[in-house]
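Lab notebook: predicted structure, single chain.

Context: the supervisor wants predicted structures on file for every construct in the current expression panel, including those that have not yet been purified. This is the next one on the list. No modifications to the sequence; it matches the entry in the shared construct table.
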Amino acid sequence: MTSVVGTLALQGAFARHIAALRRCGVDAIEVRTPAQLAQVDALVIPGGESGVISKLLVSNGLKDELGERLAEGMPTFGTCAGMIMLSAEILDGRTDQFCYDRVDIAVRRNGYGRQIDSFEADLTVTALGPDPLRAVFIRAPKVERVGPDVEVLASVDEVPVICRQGPVLVASFHPELTDDIRLHQLFVSGLAGIGPDGGPDDPIE
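Prediction complete. Output recorded below exactly as produced.
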């Protein structure tokens, strides 16, 4: 694996994402400027507050450059607020925020409630093998519409929480807050165009 994977380092637990990516064996760097964005082959957009991330993308000169890279098909993994940024529609978005329309889903910010309503759940994710994935939901977005080209990889109470469309993977929770790196591995495996065991759809054991 020779790809350089960036993590948008404007807000959120970006250091934990970088640590997880490095455990996956990739060169992982922080991205705060257009010059740093130009160095990466793929990007992780972490959690935080999606409205604030929108403002910081503008103030750091990244909004249009990131939009161009995404439109070109750059593989991207968005978690929590990152899912919101990559969605097609924010149902309750602020007037000064935007999204990049890379996954055909509509999301509601804080759809699971406020910080006090945070919870954890064990997810069944076929692509990750037989063992459940522990997911930490903190002020998580809720997916309320899924387009026909979106693959739902996991749900909680029939609500999608991991989705994939082409080179873009999104999760409504924080996978970086546990020691389980299988979701990061799934993203990294797609950078080579093959599954972790040699096939396009092989589960991670």
